[in-house]
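Lab notes, practical 5.
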Amino acid sequence: MEGSPFTIALRTKITSILCVAYYVLTCVKYLSYQTSHGERRRRQSMFPTAHVTPHPLTRT
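Output from the prediction step:
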């Protein structure tokens, strides 16, 4: 009965790897979707202050 604990460990490893792979794939899909929409929009979401702060200064 040496094979059964090994197969159980292997199954748990495979499931964890699959979960990680699925998570990575979803992250990559989201990032690719964001980049396809436009660099400007992504940069604004990443650094909103850089784009927002100059406008009120120029208005006043």
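Observations recorded by the TA: The chain has a mean pLDDT of 75. The chain has four helices and no strands.
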